[in-house]
Structure of Integral membrane protein:
Amino acid sequence: MKKSDVVQKLDFLYVLTLIIAIVETVLLFPILGGIIIVSMLWVPLLVLLGLYITCFIISSQMVSSLDDGKVRSDMLSIKPKFIVGIILSVVAVIPIVGWVSHIIMAIIMWQVFTNISTLKTDLIDNDESNGEWKDVTPDSEKDKNTEK
C-alpha cells in the first residue's frame, strides 16, 4: 500500500472519528442525549454502530496491508477501540448504561481522533523532510504485483 493510500484512509478515519466524537459528546448529556435517542427511535445508536463498524473495517484493512512500522502499530492500538464502540453502541439502548457508554466512548473517540491527527501529521512531515514517500507495501503484496 502506498503512503498516499495510507494518508487517504487516515483522512477518512480522521473525519469519521471526528463525527463520532462530536455525536458521542452531544449524547453524553443526560437529558439532551436521552431526548435525541428516544425521539429518533434509537436510530442514532444504529448510525453510530455503522460508523464504528466502518472504522473497524478500514483500520483492519490498513493493519493487514502494512508492514511493521509506526503506522501499523498505531492502527493496532486504535482498532480495539472501535470494537469497544461496537459493543457499547449495542448496549447503549439501556438508559443509564447508555449514558455511561456515551461518556466512555466520547473520551475514547476524542483520544482516537487525536492519535489519528498526530499520525497524519507525522506522515506528512516525514514526506516533506524526505522529499518522497517510501512504499509501505508488504513484500508479499509486491511479489503478487510483479507476477501480474
